[in-house]
Amino acid sequence: MTITERDSISEIERRIELGQFRWRADREDVHMNNEAALIDMIGKPAKELHTARSRNDQVQTDFRLWCRDAINRIVPSVKHLQGIHISKGPNRCCYKQHYILSFVEQLDRDIIRIQHCRAKLNFFPLGACALAGTDLPIDRFMTSELLGFTAPLRNSIDSVSDRDFVMELLPANSIIAVRLSRLDEDWVWIHCTERLCFNRE
């Protein structure tokens, strides 16, 4: 890929992020819109964008990247919440301190659960094409490594049809949401009873 092509892709990304990209319904979907815009900018080389790739494996790759990025944002947020609990616990009476720190343990399990999801989804589908792969001499291992995946998926049909990682990630996030709901309610209780606890001490 030449500097011009890289710059053009970056420019398309910039326009999308700023809301300046013109989406056209006659171009079917996001991939065709991006490809057509790139063709408009650099011409014939952009027509090779789909070589050894299809929308099937591109969508799967994008979906896995999105889920992975989401997990990469969620985990530090949960760890930050743990840190707040650790810092607040010692300032309260003994039984409340013990209770507050119980959430640190629960959030640990949430982190482990969602990191397990990340490990399972971090396999590379690109190169499976529509479902049967390609006879072009592509290096899926190199591309997988460049994009930070563990390894390419082994079966091309499974590569484009698998959605297990989403079905596992959603309940993992639901558990975190329920945990936070309970935590919010309990913090109200702690706030309302804290003065009484200190007065008794």
UniProtKB/TrEMBL annotation:
Name of the protein in its database record: Uncharacterized protein
Lineage, uppermost ranks: Eukaryota, Viridiplantae, Streptophyta, Embryophyta, Tracheophyta
